[in-house]
Each structure stands twice: as C-alpha cells, then as structure tokens.
Amino acid sequence: MSETLPSIGELLTATVPMVRTLNLEYVETSAEHAVLRLPDQPEFGNHVGGPHAGAMFTLAESASGAIVLAAFGDQLSRAVPLPVHAEIDFKKVAKGVVTATARLGRPVAEVIAELDEGRRPEFPIHVAITREDGAVTGEMTVIWILRPQS
Predict the structure, then answer these.
(1) Angle between helix 8-15 and helix 53-72 axes, rounded to 10 deg
(2) Which option is the CATH number for 8-148: 3.40.50.2300, 3.30.1330.10, 3.10.129.10, 3.40.50.1970?
(3) Total-model pTM
(4) Are 123 and 143 in contact (CB under 8 A)?
C-alpha cells in the first residue's frame, strides 16, 4: 500500500484559513511557476462588481507562497520563509474569475547557495493577475526571505 503526499495546493488549503475562505483554486504549482484562480464570488466583491482588492492581493500572495513551498520546502528544517515586502499595481478593472500567475525571480540553486553560506537570501516573486479575457488587471511583486533557524 502506498501513501500519496498532499499536493502543495491541498497542503496550503488545509493549513491557511484565508485560502479556504476565498475558495482559491490551485491550478498549477512548481518551483518556478504557480497558477491560482479566484472564483467569481459576490460576497468578496467591490463597489464596481469585481473582486475586492484585498481578495486579489491574497490571491497573488498565495500564488507566491505556493512557489516558495515548492522551491524551498525541503529547506524548512533550517530556514523559515517570510514575505518581507509586497507591492501591487492595479491596471484594469477585474470582473468574474481572476487568475494569478506567479514566477520566481531568482534561480533556486542561487538562493540555496546563499543559505548554505549562512546568509539570509532574499528573492522576488512576480505575479500577474488576469481576467478571463486574458487582460492583465494587476501586477504584484512579493519579496521573500529565507531566515536561517537559530
């Protein structure tokens, strides 16, 4: 009998209450790339009938966190990943389902090499938020660190 490990999406859905609250859907996750979807839910809407800015921020930050777990999950015994800065730009009105596509901004091996040197590596994750017609409604950059365990 073999046990299957939970996917990153299943793990984050189980451990991060806000992911469950917003019903975020993990479409794809890898060490360099993650795609999450926020369903169209009027209870999380704004004054123009689209998703609230806070929901879109959470969607994008969650996509960045999925990459962090995929890329650096094997380092958790020696480092704590923490977001230290996030900046979001809203470009167009979002309506309906929105999708966040995140990309790691530095090579995994480079970040781990800095950790091996006893440093506190910092790395960006860039996220594009799009609506169903493909238009980019927002862009976000989240700066993460791996803080070595003491």
Answers:
(1) 120
(2) 3.10.129.10
(3) 0.93
(4) yes
